[in-house]
Task: structure prediction
Amino acid sequence: WSTGKKIEMAYNEAISAKHDAREKQNIDYSFFNEEDTKRLIREKEMIDSFEDAMARKEFKVFFQPKYSPKNKELVGAEALVRWIKKDGSITNPGDFIPIFERNNIIRKLDEYIFRNVCLYLKKWKDSGKKIVPVSVNLSRASLYYKGVTEEYERITEIIGVDSKMLPIEITESAAVADSAVKEIIDSFHALGFSLQMDDFGSGYSSLASLNLMHFDTLKLDKSLVDYIGEFGGNRLIEHTISLAKELGIQITAEGVENENQVKFLKNIGCDSIQGFFYSKPVPAEDFIQTLDNPVFDMVKSDTDYVEEHLYNFNQSYYRPSFHSVVINLTKNDITDYYEYADWENMLRVKTRKFTDAVEKT
Ligand code: C2E
Ligand code: MG
Ligand code: MG
Result:
């Protein structure tokens, strides 16, 4: 109930409160508040500016490489959209994709990204580069758009790129085992596309859907990868991988950030790895360099080493009360000891001095 407001406004606010109640679950009612008003205005601005942003080509494709942990070779990439506004600010998809999904404009954006990836692949191939498959995300809303499979095939044909080079990622929550989704997946397969189940293990994983629908690759969600190092987590991932192998499905691990995770995944036969350990999503200009140097180069900056050690340290069960840190700068093949009270901050500050000292020794 809103006093002094137009009925349309009150209606919109009630709808917003309804969405809120749905999202929160287990609550029986929800009120509209000022925060919601601001959020609604922001969302409306985003929706209203979509067409202009498309016309100004503000949506850009970034590429995140996928590597084989066995030989550190580049085996593919994922296309991830970024909204780069006039002022140069970059908005990540988490901030606009859910809004566009609710308003059905995601279909246009998905197709635009797909088309752009096709154009890049064609350009790179024609200039003599060895290209790798680049997977594209297809939102649930785009999936149900009638004729989507034929439309995507038509785009590949017009541009002149093989559909095998464009795996389609469908998030596990959309990959529900129903006949409509199965039909779309079969139809993509018939046209030569391969299918990847995205975010596997993030929430709705249904083993039945693996049985009913044919996916070529499972992408293990970061939330599962984060369990690596825990007894239960390790077993869960091992068994998921062996199950997938038995079903003839490949595995890509997502959100891999450190060397321990890479080692573990390599040992248990994970086919490919995507994550900040290897690379963040990068613009096309940078990705070309990855295509030109397709074997991952282990040389890292000092900061990367320290970040990694800090990460591993934070992950370990044993955290000493007295702050003693051992850094093994394998790059220089030297081990040394440091003791700090506020080790995390000090470590960052002292690293440069430390490596200088190492070089002198
Ligand atoms: P996703 O498809 O699961 O993509 C992986 C996300 O994880 C990306 O976030 C990527 O930057 C992030 N990521 C990769 N490695 C790491 C890591 O080591 N650590 C951490 N913390 N994060 C990592 P991004 O680019 O922000 O995209 C978020 C989601 O937005 C995507 O999740 C995807 O569902 C959606 N999205 C992105 N581009 C598109 C698109 O063109 N169409 C549709 N429908 N959805 C898209
Ligand atoms: Mg994805
Ligand atoms: Mg994912």
